[in-house]
Amino acid sequence: MRRKVLQILGIFIIGILGGLFANQFIWPYFIERPVYVTERKEIIIQENTALKNAIEKVEKTVISVKTTLQTGEVLQGSGLILTSDGVIVTLVDLVPQGASFSFYIEGKPVAYQILKRDLTNNLALVKLDGNNLPTVGFADFGKLKLGERVFLVGIIHRINEFKRGVNEGVVTSFDDNLIITNIFEVVYYIGSPLFNIDGEILGLNNIDYWGRISSIPIDKIKAFAGF
Length: 227
What we know:
It is a single chain. The strands form 2 sheets. The chain has a 7-stranded antiparallel sheet with strand order 5-4-1-2-3-7-6, covered by helices on one side. It has a 6-stranded antiparallel barrel with strand order 8-9-10-13-12-11. The relative contact order is 0.15. The chain is an alpha+beta fold. It has 2 domains: 60-128, Thrombin, subunit H (Beta Barrel); 135-225, Beta Barrel (Thrombin, subunit H). Helices cover 24% and strands 39% of the residues. The chain has helices at 2-26, 37-58, 218-225; strands at 62-68, 74-81, 87-90, 100-105, 108-110, 112-118, 123-128, 149-158, 161-174, 179-184, 193-196, 201-207, 212-217.
């Protein structure tokens, strides 16, 4: 009787040891290894660093526009420097016929000449008085993807004060005529440029009734500017 009890006990102990061995050394090779939280944090940190670097790269390419309409209404917005000698692109909505305009580079007013307007695509080309101005590269619109991370940089002009602002989001839909994002902003950000995470220009922003940002794609801007 004692021998049978010992046999049963031995089998039981061997079973426990076998289970522990399989759990520690065999099963891990047959199941998917977990993704640790520390790895995810590292990815987020890398993305945020890339965004910060991209903002620093492009922020000085954005100029401020202030417009006074014939009705006395004042409009504010932004534009993008395209060439180092001062050619910029902005929205026709910011430089309509018959209004008076002011353009600012780094908060300083500069002389200007309106080169042309495209009422259909809401684009205006303006030559500012400047040299050796910072510029950015153009994104490849053909490589744009849904869900791609993007950001805008705009300038808000208050009394004797110019403040840059940024916002980020993703591309929710796009076609050859428009890029739609999940970014919402106040009206003062009209004409602000939309960039990808590499700091390349993707489009020029407009804002709808609900404050949603949509952008005129870079290919339309390049065709309008003759690039």
